[in-house]
Amino acid sequence: MPADNPGRSRSSPLSAYRTTLLRIAPIVTILIAWELAALSGLWPRQVLVPLEQVGATLLALASSGELERHVSASLYRLTCGFLTGSTIGVATGVAMALSRNVHRLLWPSFTCVRQVPVIAFIPLLILFFDVEDSFKIVIVAIASFFPSALATHDAVRDIPASHREVARLYRLPLASFLRRVILPATVPQVLTGLRLGLTRGWLSLVAAELLAADSGLGQMMEMGRQLFQIDVVLCGVIVTGLIGFLLDGSVVRLERRLSRWRTA
Amino acid sequence: MTPRLKPAALALLFPALVLGWWEWESRQSAGHAYAFAPLEQIGRSFVDMLSDGTLLFQAGASLQRALTALLIGGSIGIAIGVATGLSRLLDRTATPLITTLRQVPILGWLPLVALWFGNGDGAKLLLVSLSAFYPTVLNTQKGMQAIETRYAEVGRLYGFTRWQALRLIAWPSALPLIFTGISQALAFSWIATIGVELLFSATAGLGTEMMAAQVAARTDVVLVCVACVGVMGFALNQLFGLLRARLLRWQPPIRN
Amino acid sequence: MSDPRILRDPALRPTSTGTGAVRISGLSKHYAIGGKAMTVLDGIDLAIRPGEFVSIVGPSGCGKSTLLRLIVGLDTDYDGEIRLDDARVAGTGLERGLVFQDHRLFPWMTVAKNVEVALLNQKLPRERRDRLIAEHLALVGLADFGDAYPYQLSGGMAQRAAIARALVNEPKVLALDEPLGALDALTRVKVQAELQRIWMEAGTTMIMVTHDVDEALFLGDRVVVMSSRPGRIARIVDVDLPHPRDRASPLLHRLKDEILAELTREPREDDGTLVSFPPRIRN
């Protein structure tokens, strides 16, 4: 959701109504233009599908269970990959930040490999894992590993020395030091890293599915392209965008909840 | 007690272990050597690709695509960012549209773009430009909106015209964020370039080369390309960092 | 940097151009906060002679900064009248300058460019413009720092650069809004002396808001003491001492005690907002 600048908007009901109208106006205009262009017959129906047909296809895909199959395949891969990648990432980040020797051992290699765009690993991973599920899970894991490791490393390293000193001053036991100092001080930054990891994971997964898969939203779109079914492709675009939006939005909400202490 | 190990030795230890393991795997059986190309072979492929000009040609093609798209997408992004940053009406109308479209992963547009525009260079350029467009437009807009009243008042005090205020206050104060946008756009367009080359059958480019090598099961060639993609991405980022530091030399140097 | 050590009595000073007189009459200012009208300034009458240095002290919230913003025209919504040399003030103008508490130099410009900003809308030949900039940088002791960026300056240097920017188009009146408030005590004393010298050389009418009674007395020909809620002039103290002044003068100390007594006279329910004047003793 675009965050409206709270300082600039007045909140009378009328202006709120007008704001919403302004917001959706360009989207509605484009949709109407689309529909008119589709109905005008200037382009073949296959190229410019009328909106009602897209809707009908979406309904058909949903009711036949096909959409559910693709979505759940994609989400399963995303979940497995993200959980693996981000867990390893957070652990690696903490280790690199706390131990000087681990940092020396891993940091240079980490920085080198981080430079490679994740999707460049796709051909390599296909050679290693074939085109099965594991290849897609691994690509998501790699994609979410780097941002979460980096953010965790930075977050832990940036904890002010004064926090540690205060903890020592009050002789805080390690467990409560971790819980009361390290955790709250790092959570917001780590969450930002996880959020980036999730976004990157989703992007890489769609790319991987487009390239090689037997199911998943990417594969659905690719099939639609090969069979020249623009309506199916459009359904894929819409659902992919929606899922990306919901994923990102939920992490943002979590971020806000957990970092409320910062502004309080 | 841990002995005092030299940082350089430790830094090299990890890659050395990985390489050793790799080489060991490659010698297990012919089947293993299929995926784990022996190190020597990777080295040889690198030298071959370098000497027959393949690497240079493919890297050049990718670089050209990425930079052209950065120029197109970035300049449109900055222009729209300035416009939406200055006009509240434009902000209210255009920004929701941009944020809505942005939810779709760049490569998710690929099948649609392929159907509408074919899979020529134009379609690829369109997608890569789009990937450069998002970060520039959003950062430019944020920068233009963050003009501090503190500075705007100085402008009023000395009777700045609207144009002077834009040129001397709004634009330079937005510049750091605009540069952040461009550097993100640079990274994104490099990634998107490799992506479209992998997914679209392209005529040239590192992605194309990698895809062909994958089909031919040439792990060595794929690895050389992966390394090349990484090194080039890193180099682009560093070069841009230098340019940024030069152009924004009025900023206090960042610690570290 | 030459300190001219000219003995200048405000009454005898040859007012170089004979202009820069500010007359404020019946001035009131209201803010609407949460739908409720709040009076910030109430019935301010003040006549400032050309070339005079007037200090304004008062508790936080007495509207002294607002008064300066009205004089320079950053805020034009008020009742009453502000006149500069008989012309009514409406909006900002190059004949009235302002030095903010934070220096507000544009970080993206060198010091010289920052000073040039003030001359942007004066049609001046290039060389005259450059000379003016160089002269004013020299006036504030920053002749060698024209090519520096603001982040490279110390707090005191940045504030002096801001003063150079404010003076370069030779305003008739210069308002200073706690210009030295952000400086440490030692730098502050130094810049006060410099400000006194600059004022004596430039001959500009200056109106300075400050929290520091010592500072107000050291620099001001008159000290306006304000009370808060609503902001009113409680008292005007004449400082009958020639410039440059000696901080150890017994008269300054006596006046300081008087002003502090005035400022702390009526205990209010919101004592917390009363500025505590640091009881530091300077010599």
UniProtKB/TrEMBL annotation, chain B:
Keywords in alphabetical order: Cell membrane, Membrane, Transmembrane, Transmembrane helix, Transport
Family of this protein: Belongs to the binding-protein-dependent transport system permease family.
Membrane topology: Multi-pass membrane protein
Protein name: ABC transporter permease
Highest taxon, organism lineage: Bacteria
Domain ABC transmembrane type-1: residue ranges: 59-240
TM region(s), chain numbering: 66-87, 177-200, 221-243
Keyword Transmembrane helix in record: yes
Record-linked CDD domains: TM_PBP2
Protein localization: Cell membrane
Alphabetical list of Gene3D superfamilies matching this protein: MetI-like
Keyword Transport appears in the UniProt entry: yes
TrEMBL record, chain C:
Keywords: ATP-binding, Nucleotide-binding, Transport
Domain ABC transporter, residue spans: 22-253
Pfam families for the chain: ABC_tran (PF00005)
The keyword Transport appears for this protein: yes
Single annotated GO MF: ATP binding
CDD domains to which the protein is assigned, alphabetical: ABC_NrtD_SsuB_transporters (cd03293)
Assigned protein family: Belongs to the ABC transporter superfamily.
Protein name: ABC transporter ATP-binding protein
Species this chain originates from: Novosphingobium clariflavum
